[in-house]
Design brief:
Elements lengths: L11 H35 L2 H50 L2 H7 L1 H25 L2 H16 L1 H48 L1 H6 L3 H26 L2 H25 L5 H42 L24 E8 L9 E8 L4 E6 L5 H5 L10 E6 L2 E2 L6 H5 L2 E4 L8 E2 H5 L8 H10 L3 H6 L7 E2 L8 H14 L4 E5 L7 H12 L6 E5 L3 H4 L4 E6 L2 E6 L1 H7 L1 H18 L1
Parallel strand pairs: 3-10, 3-11, 6-9, 9-10
Antiparallel strand pairs: 1-2, 1-4, 4-5, 7-8, 11-12
Length: about 575
Amino acid sequence: MRKLLRFLKPYRIESCLGPLFKMLEALFELFIPLVVADIIDVGIAAGDSAYILKRCGIMVLLGIIGLLCSITAQYFSAKAAVGMATGMRHALFEHIGKLSYAETDRFGTATLLSRTTSDVNQIQTTVNLVLRLFLRSPFIVFGAMIMAFTVSPKAALTFTVTIPALSVIIFGIMIISIPLFRRVQAKLDRVLGLTRENLTGARVVRAFVREEESVEEFTAANRELTHLQRFTGRFSALLNPLTYVIINLSILAIIYLGGVQVNLGHLGTGDVIALYNYMSQILVELIKLANFIILITKACACAGRVNEILDTPVGMKKSDISESNIPPKASEGQVEFRNVSLSYHKDSDNALSGISFIVPAGSIVGIIGGTGSGKSSLVNLIPRFYDVTDGTVLVDGTDVRAYEPVDVLREKIGIVPQKAELFAGTIRDNLRWGRSDATDEELFAALEAAQAADFVRQKEGGLDFMIEQSGRNLSGGQRQRLTIARALTRRPRILILDDSASALDFATDAALRRSLADLPYRPTVFIVSQRTASIKDADLIVVLEDGEAVDQGTHEELLSRCAVYREIYDSQFKKTEVTAK
């Protein structure tokens, strides 16, 4: 938690003023029982209405001043807490944006979102409470005890027994409850996980007739959660009855001792009421403090999760390699793989092993292989989304790790990922992600090349047509063509199509490949596909199997000598021939 306090530094003044005004509120609150005692012992005893009204006015004034102090404290505390949370979110978002694919894969998207939102919110809530209650609650407890001794030292001796007893019960139950609540959360995560699996995999469950097994598994997990929640709830429920028993016994002791003192004339009736009020204040503050400490415990766990992300080193750092400067001819588009191997984690097996080939500028390269053969992993090394484990990837004769900053490398490259990602906004806004200053004519040129111009013109508003988040109001093929157009808007020297035409029909796919070959600026094109029809006209085809390049060459060469390529080709084209017959 201490590491995150740096985000609170810009709000030092608010962090001091919040607790200060809260302690002023507590101070005024401690005076109210004394005013009530005066009303009873002096005003009511003497029947002096003017005195009663004057003291009531003082009590109202104390309440108003306390309210103003409380509102002021809340304002400064909230400002500091929200400002700290804002700084944390900015830092997390910026840091996550700099992490390599390897780090984001290790954490997972769901975890990164959870830590950026719910964990930061938990820290924000706790910091707000810390600034308001961390000093107030102890101040009220010890202040009430001191004030009680000023009223009646003998009766106040009850406080010296009550406060330790309450503390033992409250904090004892809290210490035992915290691990129980953690176990409840773990069981709840299990139930939520099963629910998510069954909802997302409903079709698979039904297809394999696994409804009964799924229900039984969920029921068992839910039963365990229910039993643990009941036990934890019953144990936590002991807090209120035990504390109220002690408080009521203490109040009885105060009333008894106070009554004796009243009969002896050493104490007034109002003083007994004041002692009772002080005891009630102590009870309320101790319960607040216990709940507050539970929140601190949760916040510390959340802070650890946030720090884990912030402490993760950025993977994309400049390496100590000889090609430290970008050569003059940095826009040619030549790509070379030299004995490249890739492992996603230190202790995991290689996803790619010993791959070497050269792609001249302006060439079209096809990457083909079965599912899990490493096609996407290979092309993701070009824009340096991952760093090679061994070997070298060179763009324009320079190791990709030598480009500093990495944006210099990525500005040369246009990439269309497997999943078509579009953002909420107009078609124009989405295309200008490729190049922010692109004109409408340039946007339509990219749309024409991506075979998307016709359907864009048919949309209401054309380039101003509003796309919903993730392109929900577009078909799969339309989304893919728009993402290709977005990459072409940049006019990249290297274009990577990572299985980005899978939703297109064969005619559109063929038209797209022809338009890419006719682009005036002649980019180097990498086409990742499982269709041999999509890559058969490529200048070079690299065949992958289990992370290794089993062969490379033209379509005709591979058909004659590569069994893996021939098997893929036959599985697609012989089926077509049989269907045609």
